[in-house]
């Protein structure tokens, strides 16, 4: 959140508004940066390592699921089309 205020003549008011907004923004960024930073670099490294392993596993799962031949693609499309054409009974 950026907070700014200004009063007085228009030029002075605009300058005060810009200055107080800039100060507010810098305070906000400093607080946010401190909250995100992990004090233990080894813990941060382990967290990131786990994230990359999970992403690699997801990529392998997707590759296995969607690495299809042309015939398999056509078969899946036929199955999906047939399912959408079946009448639904309530």
Question: What do these coordinates show?
Answer:
With about 90 residues, the chain is mostly helical. Helices cover about 75% and strands about 0% of the residues. The radius of gyration is 28 Å and the shape is elongated. The two termini are about 50 Å apart.
Overall structural class, as computed from helix and strand content, comes to mainly alpha
Mean pLDDT: 84
The Cα radius of gyration reads 28 Å
Report the order of strands and helices.
HHH
Give helix % range: over 70%
Strand content: under 5%
Q: In DSSP terms, counting alpha (H) and pi (I) runs of 4 or more, how many helices?
A: 3
Please summarize the sheet with the most strands: none
Runs with pLDDT <50, length 5+?
none
Give me a quick take on this structure:
With 90 residues, the protein is mainly α.
Keywords summarizing the entry:
90 residues, mainly alpha, 3 helices, elongated
Q: Any chance you could write out the topology, listing elements then pairs?
A:
Layout: H1 10-36, H2 41-66, H3 70-85
